[in-house]
Amino acid sequence: MPTFRETVLQHSNLLPYQIPKGYKRIGNLMVLRHPHPIPKEVGEIAVSKYKWCNGVFQQLGTSGENRRPILRHLAGTAKTEVIHKENGVKYILDIAKVTFSGGNSELRRRLAKEVEKGERLLDMFAAVGNLSMQPIVHKNVEYILVEKDPITYSYLIKTLEANGKSAIHAHNMDCRDITIKDWADRIFMGFHGVDESHLRVALKALGKEGKIHIHPIGKPRKKKELISEYISIIKKQNVDIKNTKIMKVKKYSPGLLHYEIIFEIAKV
Ligand SMILES: C[S@@+](CC[C@H](N)C(=O)[O-])C[C@H]1O[C@@H](n2cnc3c(N)ncnc32)[C@H](O)[C@@H]1O
To answer: Looking at residue 98, what is its pLDDT?
Structure first.
């Protein structure tokens, strides 16, 4: 099968550098990330050549703590609300308002496998259940979800309803203000800027033993320093770290990777 770039090149006189190598699909929309302005013609070719594709956008970046995407419409429908189906789960979202990384689908699958049936799962940066909805649907976990942004929260509620799950434990608040104590078996922290203020709350919410998943951005050569930074913050809270695992999730930007670090912790 020709790559995305090859397909566009076959139908245009554009130069390779003007066309991204690949795309991300969210529902029936195509999202293209590229350091250069993408000609609208690329979008028009995508709409005509990919049957599922109703609209094409260039993502220029994200802004703010809620990581609102910055999009440029290229072709097809300009409507940005979608139903994205992945691994048996429906996500309802607006790609112009909610961050949903198409590049994290492998991570979401792995997490759905890793979480065990009946666990107590706390997602402190839930978005629309980007990381937690697959374990919620497939593993029948007990869950508490926290999302600070009101617009993203409204889509989280819609997503829970679309998957037949209760929204009673989904909270629209800053996760630093939660007061959960000694409860969770596992905590997802899918926010790149996690710091001591968030980790203090997470460690309080963790049960006697459990796992905390964090998602920092770092340089490949500085992996050890990255881990030690978090270890020193966690150790301040008088807990034992029984095991630490680091995995690459994806390339984030030139020279930077998105990592997942899982700390297995026991309270002393
Ligand atoms: C970037 S998204 C999650 C992305 C996810 N890792 C993925 O796979 O696409 C992080 C979410 O955390 C929310 N958030 C940021 N700070 C928060 C806080 N202090 N408390 C609760 N939610 C917060 C943002 O609004 C955003 O929806």
So the answer is: 95
